[in-house]
């Protein structure tokens, strides 16, 4: 991980250079989007909706092909692009905070400087949920019980142990004063998605769920679950404006899950800049805002150099948190 | 009776001529895709989603088209299962067990016809169940936690001896091999690579379809290569589908029982259509015992998994629509499809968009009827294909398998893997060790393991959680009863002999 | 149990079953041993090694049983058949490797023609049917199903 900081400046500089010499008139056709997962999940959705909009908005010459390349929470696609498609300037690959967590914990065959980071287009936000009949009425009650006995609550989510859903929940415990050596005694149960986790909670098999809002919004609207906290800086827009943030309850924890793209590390500065530009045009369209909202994402733009910096920042953060909590040595 | 009114409205929409035409096209295209080894409903529907946007279809029309493709693919999978012994997708695996022996006896057409009718009945039972009991069943399904699912998988593997008539030891050994191969890849709980030996290609585990195509299609070709002298003769006589409709009447009790078992398995989101067809077949085989000739071309051996599988696919719609949880790979695709049409399945869907739900149910039903009608001419068509001499048919199967598998992940590694499984399948066949348990182990092992580990995480390491609930005790008691009854029964038979 | 009646196409599995039993036994033992190298997951009660161990125990037992009490086999192939099968596997292996670098059309054409020939057709039939099959597969996947196949290098449309 020592190489990161070093490479970061180089990459930031080249990104800057790329932006400086970009010519706005010439949009490069993005012709393929790799979704590093099976059809149906978040990354697949990101690719398919962006591919569809790129074509509809005529930002590309023809159809954008979506390739599913599942494996190792994105490791297979990462390795494939790094080894054989590093200079393909018509290729974008979907990623998110989940991918950053994998990089931070050394689960990918390479560091962040292997790739060029294009942009993020929107973000989902973490929520902490209990069943509507749960004895826990507030985040404080839940966390107090956990501090008293770390094994008191069975938590569930869609990431593996030490993954993003788990870390977000543990950050709250940490903020509430749980010592790091007790973090491993907190019970964590992984399910195949936020929906299954919530369903199991409704069946009384687990006590609390930490996951993204977008996937389980229906359960909140139907009143089947109680939201103890959303992990955003500010309260969310309607219809979720009433939900309390963790920050407002005195726990300074946020946990977003943004959706964005990277491309191969050997793509030229010029092509890189033009791809960022294409994505920015897409982001600014009303169609994207609409698609994002329908799927529980808040449209949010970071592109080019700014995004690259943000990626490195996120990875550094997740890495240090993972170390603190004991997920990695 | 709001529900019936909505259902009637759904049917009225689905029966419009334009929609019927789409259903016909969908069924035909789906059947083609499903027949190609390696390509199944998941590919078929995923491929067609962008097309529906291109044509600018209304949501209802798109749904009908895609659902028809889905059903067509499932049916196409039966065609290659029965006529070539090559299952195109996961639920078709069990159909090979008696379907192919029937085809060898020149009753392939009958098997296809029967499969069509059994599927239709299974799907109808599921539709009725869905209409009447959906809210009730959601309450039942959420009572299944990890421990209960684990018990269900234990039941499945305890009955695995019922899959084939060969040596019991070899069946269990094959199942263990499948379960072990299923652990290859990144462990999704701890992110630890297991048995990958540093190959990134293995990080996602062994692709089920790749293994399936290798075990069945490639090994079939190796068998064929043993003796190429007869390869100028047409491979098989297929016959007509009509007798199948008649023999479906004789299989009525089997179809009824299997539809019920399949439907229950489908309602449980972690179980899926594969478990539905698997349990239907093995339980029916136990039930009939010596009265059946399972494994040698018993029509009931085709009817059971087909009815079970389609009832499960219908039942899986309940958790998918009301909880947003896909019960199987194919319902996952339907879920993606609904999402891409901006319909978010979840607890509010039944209340907020009933017309969508019942429109979908109607579309499924229409798709089924369409297939039943298409069935008869299609059997004739595929009979023609099989009239091709073996030296052309087998290379064609191999090539389609290659292209199909290559298109899954665009990787040569998958192709090598498929060849390796081809050799494995061939060796297993020579050893008289059934390949089906390997496939089932590979397919169900992951869910079995993760539910075990989830249960242990919940209990904090206390193993007693596995048999602490009424449901788990019931399932284990059922499994033990089956095993004991089987032993006692075979003991009685031996004494009498 | 009574002596198993052998069909005409069945042979005793005394040798092959024992070999298979030993191989599977070794696999089970290897899987057991190797599973101890998997680091236990963070905060997980049952780690990634537990399930493989749970499976390898019955697998080892069944494999050992097979070594002690082998069953029946199907007749194994003769030398000529083995050669044909080996040739087919080699051909398909090479095909898998050159599919991407050479492009679908040329690689498949050569492969299919040789494969059909291997299955016992005449050269003339192999050439004709091979070409037909290659082109129709290409049209089917590339255009009808919209799944792109690797193109010939330097040829892009």
TrEMBL record, chain A:
<dbReference type="InterPro" id="IPR042100">
    <property type="entry name" value="Bug_dom1"/>
</dbReference>
<protein>
    <submittedName>
        <fullName>Tripartite tricarboxylate transporter substrate binding protein</fullName>
    </submittedName>
</protein>
<comment type="similarity">
    <text>Belongs to the UPF0065 (bug) family.</text>
</comment>
<dbReference type="Pfam" id="PF03401">
    <property type="entry name" value="TctC"/>
</dbReference>
<dbReference type="InterPro" id="IPR005064">
    <property type="entry name" value="BUG"/>
</dbReference>
<keyword id="KW-0732">Signal</keyword>
<feature type="signal peptide">
    <location>
        <begin position="1"/>
        <end position="27"/>
    </location>
</feature>
From TrEMBL, chain B:
<feature type="domain" description="DUF112">
    <location>
        <begin position="20"/>
        <end position="440"/>
    </location>
</feature>
<feature type="transmembrane region" description="Helical">
    <location>
        <begin position="167"/>
        <end position="186"/>
    </location>
</feature>
<feature type="transmembrane region" description="Helical">
    <location>
        <begin position="111"/>
        <end position="134"/>
    </location>
</feature>
<keyword id="KW-1133">Transmembrane helix</keyword>
<feature type="transmembrane region" description="Helical">
    <location>
        <begin position="465"/>
        <end position="489"/>
    </location>
</feature>
<keyword id="KW-0472">Membrane</keyword>
<dbReference type="Pfam" id="PF01970">
    <property type="entry name" value="TctA"/>
</dbReference>
<feature type="transmembrane region" description="Helical">
    <location>
        <begin position="357"/>
        <end position="382"/>
    </location>
</feature>
<keyword id="KW-0812">Transmembrane</keyword>
<feature type="transmembrane region" description="Helical">
    <location>
        <begin position="47"/>
        <end position="71"/>
    </location>
</feature>
<feature type="transmembrane region" description="Helical">
    <location>
        <begin position="140"/>
        <end position="160"/>
    </location>
</feature>
<feature type="transmembrane region" description="Helical">
    <location>
        <begin position="388"/>
        <end position="408"/>
    </location>
</feature>
<feature type="transmembrane region" description="Helical">
    <location>
        <begin position="260"/>
        <end position="281"/>
    </location>
</feature>
<feature type="transmembrane region" description="Helical">
    <location>
        <begin position="415"/>
        <end position="445"/>
    </location>
</feature>
<protein>
    <submittedName>
        <fullName>Tripartite tricarboxylate transporter permease</fullName>
    </submittedName>
</protein>
TrEMBL record, chain C:
<dbReference type="Pfam" id="PF07331">
    <property type="entry name" value="TctB"/>
</dbReference>
<feature type="transmembrane region" description="Helical">
    <location>
        <begin position="50"/>
        <end position="68"/>
    </location>
</feature>
<feature type="transmembrane region" description="Helical">
    <location>
        <begin position="127"/>
        <end position="147"/>
    </location>
</feature>
<dbReference type="InterPro" id="IPR009936">
    <property type="entry name" value="DUF1468"/>
</dbReference>
<keyword id="KW-1133">Transmembrane helix</keyword>
<keyword id="KW-0812">Transmembrane</keyword>
<feature type="transmembrane region" description="Helical">
    <location>
        <begin position="15"/>
        <end position="35"/>
    </location>
</feature>
<feature type="transmembrane region" description="Helical">
    <location>
        <begin position="80"/>
        <end position="98"/>
    </location>
</feature>
<keyword id="KW-0472">Membrane</keyword>
<protein>
    <submittedName>
        <fullName>Tripartite tricarboxylate transporter TctB family protein</fullName>
    </submittedName>
</protein>
<feature type="domain" description="DUF1468">
    <location>
        <begin position="19"/>
        <end position="150"/>
    </location>
</feature>
<feature type="transmembrane region" description="Helical">
    <location>
        <begin position="104"/>
        <end position="120"/>
    </location>
</feature>
């Amino acid at each position: 991980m020592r190489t990161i900081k070093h490479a970061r400046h180089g990459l930031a500089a080249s990104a800057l250079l790329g932006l400086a010499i970009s010519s706005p008139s010439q949009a490069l056709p993005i012709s393929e989007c790799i979704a590093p997962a099976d059809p149906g999940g978040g990354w697949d959705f990101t690719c398919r909706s962006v591919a569809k909009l790129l074509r509809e908005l005529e930002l590309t010459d023809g159809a954008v092909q979506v390739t599913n390349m599942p494996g190792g929470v994105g490791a297979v696609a990462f390795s494939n692009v790094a080894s054989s498609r590093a200079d393909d300037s018509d290729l974008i690959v979907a990623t998110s905070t989940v991918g950053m967590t994998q990089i931070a914990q050394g689960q990918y065959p390479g560091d962040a400087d292997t790739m060029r980071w294009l942009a993020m287009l929107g973000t989902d936000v973490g929520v902490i949920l209990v069943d509507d009949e749960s004895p826990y009425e507030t985040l404080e009650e839940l966390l107090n019980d956990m501090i008293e006995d770390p094994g008191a609550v069975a938590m569930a989510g869609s990431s593996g142990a030490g993954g993003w859903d788990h870390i977000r929940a543990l950050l709250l415990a940490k903020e509430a004063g749980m010592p790091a050596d007790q973090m491993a005694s907190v019970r964590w149960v992984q399910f195949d998605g936020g929906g299954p986790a919530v369903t199991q909670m409704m069946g009384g098999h687990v006590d609390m769920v930490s996951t993204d809002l977008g996937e389980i919004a229906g359960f909140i609207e139907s009143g089947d679950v109680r939201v103890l906290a959303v992990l955003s800086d500010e309260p969310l827009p309607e219809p979720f404006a009433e939900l309390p943030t963790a920050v407002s309850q005195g726990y300074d924890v946020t946990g977003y899950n943004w959706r964005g793209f990277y491309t191969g590390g050997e793509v030229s500065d010029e092509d890189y800049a033009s791809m960022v530009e294409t994505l920015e045009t897409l982001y600014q369209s009303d169609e994207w805002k609409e698609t994002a909202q329908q799927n529980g994402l808040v449209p949010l733009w970071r592109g080019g150099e700014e995004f690259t910096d943000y990626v490195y920042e996120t990875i550094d953060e997740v890495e240090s948190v993972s170390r603190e909590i004991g997920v990695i040595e | 009776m709001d529900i019936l009114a909505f259902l009637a409205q759904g049917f009225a929409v689905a029966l419009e001529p334009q929609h019927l035409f789409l259903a016909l096209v969908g069924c035909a295209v789906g059947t083609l895709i499903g027949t190609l080894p390696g390509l199944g409903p998941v590919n078929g529907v995923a491929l067609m989603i962008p097309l529906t946007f291109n044509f600018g279809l209304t949501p209802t029309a798109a749904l009908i088209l895609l659902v028809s493709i889905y059903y067509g693919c499932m049916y196409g999978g039966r065609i290659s299962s029965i006529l070539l012994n090559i299952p195109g997708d996961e639920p078709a695996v069990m159909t090979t067990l008696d379907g192919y022996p029937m085809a060898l006896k020149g009753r392939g057409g009958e098997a296809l016809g029967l499969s069509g009718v059994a599927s239709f009945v299974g799907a109808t039972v599921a539709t009725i169940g869905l209409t009447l009991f959906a809210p009730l069943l959601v309450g039942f399904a959420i009572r299944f936690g990890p421990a209960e699912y684990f018990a269900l998988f234990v039941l499945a593997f305890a009955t695995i001896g019922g899959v084939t008539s060969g040596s019991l030891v070899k069946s269990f050994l094959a199942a263990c091999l499948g379960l072990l191969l299923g652990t290859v890849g990144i462990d999704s709980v701890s992110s630890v690579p297991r048995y990958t030996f540093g190959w990134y290609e293995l990080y996602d585990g062994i692709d089920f379809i790749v293994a399936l195509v290798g075990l069945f299609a490639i090994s079939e070709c190796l068998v064929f290569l043993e003796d190429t002298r007869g390869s100028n003769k047409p491979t098989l006589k297929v016959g007509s589908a009509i007798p199948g409709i008649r023999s479906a009447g004789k299989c009525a009790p089997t179809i009824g029982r299997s539809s019920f078992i399949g439907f229950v398995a489908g309602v449980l989101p972690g179980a899926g259509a594969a478990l539905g067809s698997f349990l239907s077949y093995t339980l029916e085989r136990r039930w009939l015992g010596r009265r059946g000739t399972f494994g040698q071309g018993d029509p009931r051996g085709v009817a059971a998994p087909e009815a079970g599988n389609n009832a499960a696919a219908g039942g899986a719609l309940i958790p998918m629509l009301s909880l947003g949880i896909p019960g199987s790979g194919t319902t996952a695709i339907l879920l993606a499809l609904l999402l891409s049409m901006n319909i978010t399945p979840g607890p509010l869907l039944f209340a907020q968009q009933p017309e969508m739900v019942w429109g979908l149910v109607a579309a499924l039903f229409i798709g089924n009827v369409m297939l039943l009608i298409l069935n008869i001419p299609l059997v004739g068509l595929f009979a023609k294909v099989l009239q091709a001499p073996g030296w052309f048919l087998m290379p064609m199967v191999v090539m389609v398998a290659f292209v199909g598998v290559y298109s899954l992940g665009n990787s040569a590694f998958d192709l090598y893997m498929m060849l390796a499984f081809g050799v494995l399948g061939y060796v297993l066949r020579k050893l008289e060790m059934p390949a089906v348990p390997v496939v089932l182990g590979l397919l169900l092992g992951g869910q079995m393991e993760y539910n075990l580990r989830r249960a242990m995480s919940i209990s904090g390491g206390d193993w007693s959680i596995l048999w602490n609930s009424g449901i788990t005790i019931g399932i284990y008691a059922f499994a033990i009863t089956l095993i004991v009854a089987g032993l006692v029964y075979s003991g009685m038979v031996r004494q009498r002999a | 149990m009574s002596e198993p009646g052998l069909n005409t196409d069945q042979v005793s599995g005394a040798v092959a079953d024992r070999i298979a039993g030993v191989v599977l036994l070794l696999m089970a033992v290897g899987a057991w041993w190797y599973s101890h190298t998997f680091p236990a997951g963070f905060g997980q009660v049952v780690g990634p090694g537990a399930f493989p161990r749970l499976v390898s125990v019955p697998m080892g037992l069944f494999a050992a049983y097979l070594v002690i009490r082998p069953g029946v086999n199907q007749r194994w192939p003769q030398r000529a058949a083995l050669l044909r099968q080996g040739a087919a596997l080699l051909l398909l292996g090479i095909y898998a490797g050159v599919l991407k670098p050479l492009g679908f059309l040329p690689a498949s054409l050569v492969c299919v023609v040789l494969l059909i020939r291997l299955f016992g057709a005449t050269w003339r039939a192999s050439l004709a049917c091979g070409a037909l099959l290659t082109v129709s597969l290409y049209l089917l996947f590339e255009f009808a199903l919209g799944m792109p196949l690797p193109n010939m290098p330097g040829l892009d449309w």
